[in-house]
Amino acid sequence: MTMRAATLPIQRPHDARLLVIDPRGHIEHRPRSTFADLLRPGDCVIANDAATLPASLQGIHEPSGSQIEIRLAGRASLDPKDVERFSAVVFGAGDFHTPTEARLAPPVLKSRDRLTLGTLGATIVRMLDHPRLVELQFDGDAAHIWRALAKQGKPVQYAHLHDALALWDVWTAIAAQPVAFEAPSAGFVLDWRIVETLHARGVSFATLTHAAGLSSIGDAALDQRLPFDEPYRIPATTAALIAATRARRGRVVAIGTTVVRALEHAAARDGIIRAGDGVATQRIGPQTQLRVADVIVSGTHEPDTSHYALLRAFTDAVTLLDANEALATHGYRTHEFGDSVWIERRTCVLRDGQPHPRHAGEQERCVTC
Fold this sequence. Notes:
Elements: E1 4-5, E2 17-21, E3 27-31, E4 44-48, E5 51-52, E6 56-61, E7 66-74, E8 85-91, E9 114-117, E10 120-130, E11 133-138, H1 142-152, E12 178-180, H2 192-200, E13 204-210, H3 220-223, E14 230-234, H4 236-247, E15 252-255, H5 257-266, E16 276-280, E17 295-299, H6 306-311, H7 317-329, E18 333-334, E19 340-344, E20 347-349, E21 355-357
Parallel strand pairs: 1-18, 2-19, 4-13, 4-15, 5-12, 15-17
Antiparallel strand pairs: 2-3, 6-7, 6-9, 7-8, 8-11, 9-10, 10-11, 13-14, 14-16, 17-19, 20-21
């Protein structure tokens, strides 16, 4: 049994649902509009304020004359002046109407090949260990590149959506700097009315910026590499809020996998969140010892994706299988405009009968995992 895809680009449909998994693995179904009711005074909610780039570009591979599509996939930093070089995935002729796994391969690509992407010229600087994955350098200065992206770039999208997306379809209500390659779509659960409700209930809210990457490429070898390295920025106010929340034993609620990835990378050394820039290079999964995030609010994900693997850091495989069955049985919608899940970090019961958050060094004493 599989979930059905959300096919309309509506960020906050009135009938959106939320599957809730509590620390003991119990499952509950709620309207997503009741999201704020799950929060307690003293909690903090952290969301990704990245706006989405028009990261899909149609063009020509000059050596062969073949039509191609470029999907920008990564960059070294969030600096708005540093937009000359990107990693990118190259497809052959076609567009989002064809499923990514059925897309034509690009022509043979080599270093120094020239690409014409509308008014943007680019050069393949080097191949990145796969025939579709390249590092490219755009011609011109940052102002020219930004103008060209804004004029002719399109949002990355997939075949489950019938009509072409507009850029405003993939910007969350809190969108700020355009650095994401796909929408940080867990943030579609939020709007400023909800943020106001959180504050009224004694729940703090803050943001970080994380360059959310591609969710699927359609090539099995490349999909196994996801997520790619992704730069992020944590403001001083967000770092201070997380420290204060942990000091008062509140929960850190991460809106989306990108927030979890940024926070856990930043805290990897000693568990402390420090303000500043970084690049998340790790994969999060069942072996990950979470140091910061207590709850994740996310979209619904298929089991063979890196997003789904990240959920295993919060709860066990059996619970997620039960959740998958519940999502399918109750007709939840998947993909970026679909329904949502709330997963609290699993509480293990130790042999002395006392609950304790899961820690790697205590797994051998846990009788529920």
